[in-house]
């Protein structure tokens, strides 16, 4: 391990006693804005712990990142209860993933899982630092990410602070390029030798996974996220024959979820999305089912024939109805192009 | 075991074969002592007096060396003239997790050279985390005409060519056990090298090799080795082939199946089931690669007398496991993947009241998208149903202090408690507190605890508890834990029986390292990596304790003053003479 890593670790662990004192100092300020979020889950979040850990961690080269920026990322989030408000689609993606990251309690983020590209200004500086750090070798960046990751488990519910894992996620994005399929665990592993599993077992299980994911005819797993839900699910699109089946399956998974029009109709094949139907959708239900297609665009589910949908769908998102308003024009445009 | 190594230092100068008297009491004593198998007993015996020391060394046939660098082959050969069986362990355990660079050492060859001269009648060699080349395997095969048993676990440096040589030349081979090694698998032709006249094999384990082997050769081999009691095949063997093997080996006691997912015709299935019903001696079952629920019922007849079931490569779901376990009332040891989830573990609790050992491995340790696996609930469920549980290895993604307290209350007899919360530094997920109280409960309640692996967010309090209560603790593994030097100091000053301490990524520095000055000679080894120890601290340790080997492994690009990886162990062989450039002996 290199010096920066050890310094990082020193920083990280020495926050433990510091955390406690800082808790007392800043708990009053953070508690108000995070209270509602904390109330959601029965798990308490120690935001100040994260704050300090974030500032101690060096995700890029030592000294390349100012704590202020991180705090402001935090600050941004602390201000808003609803993490989704006021964001455009692409940071939204990051938030969605960040949200997922926040909940995830497995340590190793796979860059292969992050399918969307890096964009957004705030990423750039992090990227710079991260990129420089990563040039020193995988191990370090892994450990940096790992240390960054250590702060995350304290934050269990997603509604709260997706931004804190965001730097981690972004950095990890930079460390290795996103790819669609699960590659060998070596690519996913962020900390050498952790969890403590013998190489033989790791490799065996990896080849099992690779076998399963290469079995293209067999299954087509896509992630399903739902705004406000603490974790994602994965569904195998091949197990459904039409939108109705998908909808009811998702409904079961996320029990307070409805996709309004789609579930009741099983949308006809070539019809574009009419304005009236869209309004029905938006007014008729609290949530809307959207998906990200191969082009990286977020689309309303139900527009295209089922086969085309399963071919182009990369991930699903159950979006709050209020968010879907931005999608409709684009969706309609695409439909227009198709008809 | 350990004290025998220390004994060698005291008496190495007194080793004189002519000192062995011809007086009958010595011979009688030797005869009596030859019945002693336990190493610790033998060590105790050797300390009584010089006569007993000599009698012990002349009557000993098996030597266990827990750290190959703690002693030299010459010293061993000088003290024990009549060894027929050797067990050697080499690299530090963390080498299993890629924390030790390649070519670190632990080469068996120098040992084989001495053994060839001093123990020409050597019969057994069991190696763990050693490096063994094909040349060494060849040397072994030709140097020891009476060679019987070779067991390689977590070793590296060899290929299937070496196995071919063993198969060809070892006419008296009874055991070939190749497990979880870094082996270069070039193909399965090695198995065909056993001559047609060869019939002595009793134990054959090649489950972890991947290449296809010649099934006909295997079938013939199994057919003619009538004393075979252990057969663990690899994935290339299908269910149908398994049945054909079993039909000629109904005396088998331990079976490792191959792939368990072949499509069988109804008749084939019936045949398999019938053959398994006739295999009344099987008490250990493993393999079951890609086992599908469909074929598991064929195993039911075997399950009734099963005491050890390893499903650690079979990703079963909870329902499949439950159905299977319902037929395994005698189970003592169970290894599963966390695909069985908490529900599966509930079935363990309800079906296996005699369970003593449980290991739950993660099927997908690096995937964070699919949230599954086991939680504290599964562990608790097992503890309610299996009061005799004393060995657990548990990989999970969440745990609570309260759950662990309940678990040890239900199962106070833990001797091995290895809990791995896979996210480093993760607190109790319900209270967000450190997991200190969990491990506190373990050490307070489980007075027989010998081995402990801790994880999760831990402060020095955990180590205070360990030092204060874990009086029988011999092995402690720590990662991403602790707050200060004080933690490690508590352990070093508090645990009288501590033998192995391995630490990674903890904030323990020189003060902690040096607080164990008086301790390390009574321990086998200490490993510290990614901690705060510096080169100066290590040098000081080396200066003050000349009978310890203090080795530092430096990494590229690290600061000169940092001691990245430190490995400290007692030795009567002096510093290593075969250390690679990246290992600095201070």
UniProtKB/TrEMBL annotation, chain A:
Where is the protein situated, by its record's location annotation?
Nucleus
Where does the record place the PB1 domain?
219-321
Q: Which Pfam families match?
A: AUX_IAA
Report the leader peptide range.
none
**Broad class of the protein's primary localization:** nucleus
**What keywords appear on the UniProt entry?**
Auxin signaling pathway, Nucleus, Repressor, Transcription, Transcription regulation
Statement: the UniProt record of this protein carries the keyword Repressor = yes
Q: Where is this region: Disordered?
A: 1-68, 157-188
Q: Does the keyword Nucleus apply?
A: yes
Query: What GO cellular component term, any one, is given?
Result: nucleus
Gene Ontology biological process? auxin-activated signaling pathway; regulation of DNA-templated transcription
Q: Which SUPFAM superfamilies did the record assign?
A: CAD & PB1 domains (SSF54277)
Q: Name the domain of life.
A: Eukaryota
Q: Ranges of Low complexity compositional bias?
A: 24-35, 43-52
**Gene3D superfamilies associated with the record:** Phosphatidylinositol 3-kinase Catalytic Subunit, Chain A, domain 1
Oligomeric form and interacting partners = Homodimers and heterodimers.
Its biological purpose is as follows: Aux/IAA proteins are short-lived transcriptional factors that function as repressors of early auxin response genes at low auxin concentrations.
By what name is this protein known?
Auxin-responsive protein
Q: What is the lineage of its organism?
A: Eukaryota, Viridiplantae, Streptophyta, Embryophyta, Tracheophyta
Automatic annotation (TrEMBL), chain B:
Localization in the cell: Nucleus
Q: Residue spans with biased composition (Polar residues)?
A: 1-10
Q: Domain Transport inhibitor response spans what residues?
A: 81-127
Query: COI1 F-box domain: which residues?
Result: 23-62
| Highest taxon of the lineage | Eukaryota
The answer to whether keyword Nucleus applies is yes
Q: Report the protein name in the record.
A: Protein TRANSPORT INHIBITOR RESPONSE 1
Q: Which SMART domains match?
A: LRR_CC
- Which molecular-function annotations from GO does this UniProt entry contain? auxin binding
Pathways involved:
Protein modification; protein ubiquitination
Q: Which UniProt keywords apply?
A: Auxin signaling pathway, Developmental protein, Nucleus, Ubl conjugation pathway
Task: Name the SUPFAM superfamilies on file.
Answer: RNI-like
GO-annotated biological processes: auxin-activated signaling pathway; pollen maturation
Region described as Disordered: spans on this chain: 1-23
* First-listed, main subcellular location of the protein, grouped into a coarse class: nucleus
Record keywords: Nucleus included? Answer: yes
GO CC term (a single one):
nucleus
